Amino acid sequence: MRLLRTGRFAADAETGVLVVGAGAAGLTAALSAHAAGAEAMLLERDATPTGSTSLSSGLIPAAGTRFQRALGIRDDTATFFADIMAKNGGRTDAARARRLADVAGEAVEFLADAAGVPFSVVEGFTYPGHSALRMHGAPRRTGVELMGHLLEGAERAGIPLVTSAAVSTLAADAAGRILGVEVERPGGGRERIACRALVLACGGFGADAARVRTHIPTMANALYFGHPGHRGDALAWAEALGARLADLAGHQGHGSVAHPHGILITWAAMTEGGIQVNREGRRFADESHGYSEHAAAVLEQPGGEAIAIFDTRIADIARQFEDFRNAEALGAVREAADARALAAMFVLPEAALAATLAEADALAAAGTRDAFGRVFSEAKRLVAPYRAARVTGALFHTQGGPDTDAEARMLGADGRLLPNLFAAGGAGRGVSGPRADGYLSGNGLLSAVGFGRIAGLAAARLS
Ligand SMILES: Cc1cc2nc3c(=O)[nH]c(=O)nc-3n(C[C@H](O)[C@H](O)[C@H](O)COP(=O)(O)OP(=O)(O)OC[C@H]3O[C@@H](n4cnc5c(N)ncnc54)[C@H](O)[C@@H]3O)c2cc1C
């Protein structure tokens, strides 16, 4: 990735707001800029835009929405903000987190209206750290659906989306004002596009193993489960521009990816009463804390894997997720009549496994806290026959990167604003702070959709 310092930029085309990357962040930014009256254009490296957004469950947390009100859910942005800050332990910039908590509801309603996303609120369980039911998703709870609607919305709005267009170079003047970008085409051709404002929405650096080793050593050996296009391009340009970087160790991990199938087993399987055991048949952590920090705990176990154990009641809840249904269809989720059958199925020491299950049952019956700090409850007691899946820990996406202010404007190393450069979603700093346990469920799409909305509107004002 290159930075060209120049005073003059001769371009083949020109637009007002140029957006690099057509995932949730880029599409939300472009739709927002267009709705605000700006001329917007999207550049996407892939021939068909999918991004990490398509790999996700497509669930966006937001408070005070009409979708919540329709279900009688009481929630507000102050509570949402408090939940974000509680999860990151106050280790992020409060003004940015507050702005995101405030904008998320409006952004979700905007996408419903502008792109026709048929949002509804996930019911049946709350994600760890959220005080209310506030995850908004399309009916099948897949990111593919979300992307489909966003792309259709952009097409209906007539926003040009140039695919197979890998942005390789940013051109900036001496003051750091972006003049335009250079695009590489698959056949080797190059095009130059000038712009009045640029939104980087090209993802984080999860696919760059060297950067992950440097900045997130706990995930150095983890399966990377995100989109391969997260090559750290925004980070490289930010470094070249002398921009301020923040929270580079922050990330979303996940401690429950079916192995070797590579399909997400929803964390609801744990929060609803499930447990994980290692190859020795023993539990090793509090499974009710976040799935993000649990990734490293799983990777520390023998073989870097665990067996997630739950039951029929929990499988019924998990089945609302297409990923889970796919995992069942592929045979990743298996059924065992009792501890003995379960031990045989997953080659676990029978006595140790039976003791672990008996202990979990006794804790649930008594409604008490265990040595890891998990509080068990009678209502979520595991009942045979068991369901179980072999899982591993994975890196889903990075949460650190170029720092921005609450308006998604990128900052120089000295804290001064760069004149017309924005970052949203994986391309910029999130609100999870510098640690895996700072990731509150949904912080990924919250940063993508929330900062995408903010960046699109602010960039439109410059165009
Ligand atoms: C399995 C999985 C499950 C997840 N589940 C959730 C969830 O339920 N809720 C949640 O909030 N988050 C979730 N996340 C995280 C979430 O998917 C991401 O935070 C979010 O999709 C990021 O959106 P984005 O637009 O920044 O990136 P993407 O959607 O990845 O879009 C970035 C785009 O930029 C393109 N690009 C990159 N470089 C260039 C370049 N140089 N030129 C042109 N184009 C470029 C890429 O090809 C890509 O299409 C999940 C992630 C994974 C992997």
Which geometry do the CA atoms define? Answer: elongated
> What is the total domain count?
2
Q: Main β-sheet, in a few words?
A: 9 strands, mixed
CATH class category name of the largest domain: Alpha Beta
Small-molecule binders here are: flavin-adenine dinucleotide
Helix proportion? 25-40%
**Proportion of beta-strand residues:** 15-25%
Considering the protein shown, what is the CATH homologous superfamily of the largest domain?
Answer: FAD/NAD(P)-binding domain
Structural class assignment: alpha/beta
CATH topology of the largest domain: FAD/NAD(P)-binding domain
Taking pLDDT < 50 over at least 5 consecutive residues as the criterion, the unreliable ranges are none
Rg: 22 Å
Average pLDDT reading: 97
Q: What gap, in angstroms, lies between the N and C termini?
A: 25 Å
- Count of DSSP strands: 21
CATH architecture annotation name of the largest domain: 3-Layer(bba) Sandwich
Discrete helix count:
15
What attributes does this structure have?
15 helices; 22% strand; 21 strands; seven-stranded mixed beta sheet; single chain; elongated; binds flavin-adenine dinucleotide; Flavocytochrome C3, Chain A, domain 1; 463 residues; nine-stranded mixed beta sheet; alpha/beta; FAD/NAD(P)-binding domain
Word description of this protein:
It is a single chain. The protein has helices at residues 24-35, 51-55, 66-70, 77-88, 94-115, 143-157, 209-215, 233-241, 268-271, 291-299, 312-318, 322-329, 339-346, 350-366, 443-462; strands at 2-5, 13-20, 40-43, 60-61, 120-121, 135-137, 161-162, 166-172, 178-184, 190-200, 223-224, 245-246, 251-258, 263-264, 275-277, 305-311, 334-336, 386-398, 401-402, 409-411, 417-423. With 463 residues, the protein is α/β, with parallel strands linked by helices. The strands form 4 sheets. Strands 1, 2, 3, 7, 8, 9, 10, 20 and 21 form a 9-stranded mixed β-sheet that branches. Strands 11, 13, 14, 15, 16, 17 and 18 form a 7-stranded mixed β-sheet that branches. Helix 1 (24-35) crosses helix 5 (94-115), helix 1 runs parallel beside helix 6 and helix 4 crosses helix 5. It is elongated and about 75 Å long. The relative contact order is 0.20. The chain binds flavin-adenine dinucleotide.
